[in-house]
User: Which sequence fits this backbone?
């Protein structure tokens, strides 16, 4: 019995080390020497041959950011006659709709094909996306959050990359304007590097709602209870045999700062979405999908399991205390660390120690992931669309 517990204990520790250390190292080795940008080998598109694109922007109480978003659109380097913009205000209780209409009166908007739709009822983001896709007539669709601005050449770069027939969607490099702590900045840079390496292997899994673009014919209407639409849509495209690439030259900059409460809510929602994604897209974890299965299992799959693996490690450690002094030392260290982390969670210890800040960031992330997973199970996936960054 004790040998089984030791095996479980060691295996759980290995999985955590694999996810955080070995998996990124494997990605680096496997992508070494691969071409950073698949579109570099594609012919340059003449401006007259650029495809028509619809940029869809779902909005819910975005009065603060809608003007900046529309200014960003007017500055995009793309033929005005080939760019359609659809803004759908989903039952906003602020002045998002009026603010959008007011800005459209400016001369710089005169030649733009911008449609602003005001939905009286707050139906939720997924319902709005499904509705919007029935209104789109162009072959290419871009989705972008209101609070994110994109690089002026984003559409041209994406259109160029979509020349490759095997590519179904293009993801951008996500950045945040208000970087908060250095740990926040490091985390998002790390995530961007992981996605870039996943892309080099074949496909990056999912996208970020700040900006991504795809072929309209590959869109599948979303189930009403879908949580993370910006992950499900690209994954459905991968399931159809197409690739999703990340172009690091396309930048999407998030303007809205995220405080600790918003970050917690965001992580809980993402965790609930991760469970839903694994359950609904489990077919992509089969060996026939090769690199996609490897990345899905090593990344999203294990990320869901980390909080539960930590619990397994703690409990098995408690049962193994009498077998060897090593487990006693390990148990003491675990209790000291968890005690310190919960104390920091309550009182927010002020320190510049990078190791402590990294541990605190990871602990809060995994705790919120655990709570999000429980929330998904309890509410059976019925998570409403709230304004969470």
Assistant:
């Amino acid at each position: 019995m004790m040998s089984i517990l030791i095996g479980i204990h060691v295996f759980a520790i290995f999985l955590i080390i694999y996810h955080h250390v070995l998996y990124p190292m494997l990605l680096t080795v496997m992508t070494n020497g691969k071409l950073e940008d698949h579109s570099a080998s594609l012919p340059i598109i003449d401006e007259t041959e650029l495809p028509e694109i619809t940029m869809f922007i779902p909005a819910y109480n975005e009065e603060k950011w809608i003007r900046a978003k529309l200014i960003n659109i007017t500055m995009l380097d793309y033929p005005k006659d080939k760019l359609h913009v659809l803004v759908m205000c989903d039952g906003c209780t602020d002045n998002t709709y009026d603010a959008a209409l007011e800005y459209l009166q400016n001369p710089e908007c005169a030649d733009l094909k911008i449609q602003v739709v005001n939905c009286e009822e707050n139906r939720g983001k997924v319902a709005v996306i499904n509705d919007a896709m029935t209104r789109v007539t162009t072959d290419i669709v871009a989705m972008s959050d209101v609070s994110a601005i994109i690089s002026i050449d984003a559409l041209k770069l994406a259109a160029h990359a979509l020349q490759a027939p095997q590519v179904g969607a293009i993801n951008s490099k996500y950045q945040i304007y208000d970087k908060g702590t250095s740990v926040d900045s490091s985390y998002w840079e790390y995530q961007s590097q992981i996605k870039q390496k996943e892309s080099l292997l074949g496909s990056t899994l999912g996208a970020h709602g700040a900006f991504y673009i795809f072929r309209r014919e590959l869109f599948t209407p979303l189930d009403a209870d879908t949580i993370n639409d910006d992950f499900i849509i690209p994954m459905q495209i991968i399931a159809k045999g197409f690739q999703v690439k990340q172009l690091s030259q396309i930048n999407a900059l998030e303007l809205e700062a995220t405080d600790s409460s918003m970050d917690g809510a965001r992580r809980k929602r993402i965790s609930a979405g991760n469970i839903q994604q694994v359950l609904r897209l489990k077919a992509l974890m089969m060996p026939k999908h090769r690199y996609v299965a490897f990345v899905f299992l090593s990344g999203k799959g294990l990320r869901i399991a980390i909080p539960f693996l930590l619990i397994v490690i703690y409990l098995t450690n408690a049962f193994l205390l009498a077998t060897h002094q090593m487990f006693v030392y390990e148990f003491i260290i675990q209790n000291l660390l968890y005690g310190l982390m919960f104390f920091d969670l309550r009182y927010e210890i002020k320190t510049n120690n990078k190791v402590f800040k990294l541990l605190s960031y990871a602990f809060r992330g995994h705790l919120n992931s655990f709570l999000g997973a429980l929330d998904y199970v309890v509410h059976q996936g019925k998570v409403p669309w709230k304004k969470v960054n």
Observations:
- Strands lie at 53-59, 83-90, 113-119, 140-143, 148-150, 167-176, 212-215, 243-254.
